[in-house]
Design goal:
The chain has 465 residues and is α/β, with parallel strands linked by helices. The protein has 14 helices and twelve strands. The chain has three domains: 72 residues; 261 residues, Type I PLP-dependent aspartate aminotransferase-like (Major domain) (Aspartate Aminotransferase, domain 2, 3-Layer(aba) Sandwich), CATH 3.40.640; 106 residues, Aspartate Aminotransferase, domain 1 (Alpha-Beta Complex), CATH 3.90.1150.10. Strands 2-8-7-6-5-3-4 form a seven-stranded mixed sheet, sandwiched between helices. A hairpin with a 7-residue loop joins β9 and β10. α5 runs parallel beside α12, α6 crosses α8 and α6 packs across α11. It binds pyridoxal-5'-phosphate (PLP).
């Protein structure tokens, strides 16, 4: 222990971490997907009195790996389809290790120039891949929840400024009321962001059977009121995968002076594929966008991205200039001016590595592969007796019913108990469902076949009833 063996202690601990990481990753193709113990059992394993004396780092790493092993969910497995969660591309994982070793507090350009530059370039690449306006600000957040918060914070300041109200100086008390209109099937993180921002409960606008906002209903809702307004659109409905009609809805919103924010946590990535981007036509006409890199792009947690077309809007909210923080200089902004945190890890660096390793055609192939696997699930499931596919499989999401709600829940429980695959039970369009989200770069046709076989086993065990 101690400074005399500084590099030796690191080497010993990191070698153990590397060995445990390799055996974990090596176990993924064959291990059951779900954890073998629940949180209470894990708590009993971990829960011991904190000893008084220090322990060698390498031994602590070994102990951690041993204690945790039975409680790990194989989320990076190609047979994991729960919620909407990606795995991790090799280049992104290794870059994330380096980010940890470098230990850069990535908030200021002058202090951590290497990570600032890598993140800036990752941001430029993202704008190009997603077809968003050049010159937009890009900030790296913890996830799409944080990105929705940041984008809506910029929206709030901007629409109030247009109404003659200086939010930074005056605060929200006494300000004009900001109307927020959202699709009926927006993600709960939009409501959370609005709550943090003091904007209250939004007004829900009717959506169609696939969860897409109905433009005529949006127009009617905007016409029925007045004053500063924000419209939240969605790229990628959690259940159907469908996206709102971006161009049409944005034009309606802009005709009423509203700011248009897009929650595209996973669905924004359709814009990076030539075969998929048609469903997001007009995306670049919106004002702010939130997405995740830890879902569709398959970088490690946690990594979201906020993009705002008017840089002054984002910086007016998050930019502060105190005496001890050096400013970035003319024509540049510091990373901390675009996100809620001052201190943070360089989470945009794994984005750089993921994009560099894939290239633009690799990003498109990643998206197209996810969609192809989702469609393979959709067509195979449609052909099975007693199975109904409830959504149009337009992106990465597939929702199925096995008949009554009770039967769907029973079959879902059997599928999870089987262990070969992992999918989420959910509730959509008034029914209990099983949702399959294809978000992992490594899922291949063998994973899809093995998962379909698990569903067939569960159906056979359940019987025809
Ligand atoms: C996952 C998701 C979010 C929240 O993203 P986090 O990364 O979990 O914060 C928001 N909107 C949609 C549509 C999502 O799928």
């Amino acid at each position: 222990m101690g400074i005399e063996n500084f590099s030796g202690d690191y080497r010993a601990a990191l070698e153990r971490a590397h060995a445990h990481a390799s055996s974990w990753l090596g176990s993924l193709p064959s291990r059951p997907v779900g954890p073998r113990m629940d949180a209470d059992q894990l708590l009993a394993r971990f829960n011991q009195p904190l000893q008084e004396q220090p322990l060698p780092a390498a031994g602590v790493v070994d102990e951690l790996a041993r204690l945790a092993e039975p409680g790990l969910m194989a989320m990076p497995s190609g047979r994991f389809f729960g919620w909407v969660m990606g795995g991790t591309l090799p280049a992104a994982m290794a870059a994330d290790w380096l980010v940890t070793a470098w230990d850069q507090n990535a908030s200021m350009r002058f202090a951590t120039p290497a990570t600032a530059a890598a993140e800036e370039v990752a941001g430029l690449w993202l704008l190009e891949l997603l077809g968003l306006p050049a010159g937009s600000d890009v900030g790296f957040t913890t996830g799409a929840t944080g990105a929705n918060f940041a984008g809506l914070a910029a929206a709030r300041a901007h629409v109030l400024a247009e109404a003659g109200w200086d939010l930074a100086a005056e605060g929200l008390s006494g300000s004009p009321r900001v109307r927020v209109l959202v699709g009926a099937e927006r993600h709960a993180s939009i409501d959370m962001a609005l709550k943090y921002l003091g904007l209250g409960t939004p007004q829900a606008v009717a959506a169609d059977a696939q969860g897409r906002i109905i433009p005529a209903a949006l127009a009617a809702a905007l016409e029925a009121g007045s004053g500063p307004a924000i419209v939240c659109l969605q790229a990628g409905n959690l259940h159907s995968g469908a996206s709102d009609p971006m161009g049409e809805a944005a034009a309606i919103a802009h005709a009423h002076g509203a700011w248009v924010h897009v929650d595209g946590a996973f669905g924004l990535w359709a814009a990076a594929s030539p075969t998929q981007r048609g469903q997001l036509a007009g995306l670049g006409d919106c004002d702010s966008w939130a997405t995740d890199a830890h879902k569709t792009l398959n970088v490690p947690y946690d990594c979201g991205v906020v993009i705002v077309s008017r840089p002054e809007a984002l910086r007016s909210v998050f930019g502060v200039h105190t005496s001890y923080l050096m400013t970035a200089g003319q024509g540049h902004s510091d990373p901390f001016e675009k996100v809620p945190e001052f201190s943070r890890r360089a989470r945009g660096v794994p984005v750089w590595a993921a994009l560099r390793s894939l290239g633009s055609s690799g990003v498109a192939a990643l998206i197209d592969g996810l969609v192809a696997n989702a469609q393979a699930f959709g067509s195979a499931l449609s052909a099975m007796d007693g199975v109904e596919v409830l959504n149009e499989v337009v992106f990465t999401q597939v929702c199925v019913s096995f008949g009554s709600d009770e039967r769907t829940r029973r079959v879902t429980a059997r599928i999870l108990a089987d262990g070969a695959t992992w999918m989420s039970g959910s509730h959509w369009a008034g029914r209990d469902i099983l949702r399959i989200s294809v978000s992992n770069w490594s899922t291949d046709s063998a994973d899809v076949a093995a998962s379909l076989a698990a569903i067939e086993r569960a159906l056979a065990a359940e019987g025809a009833g």
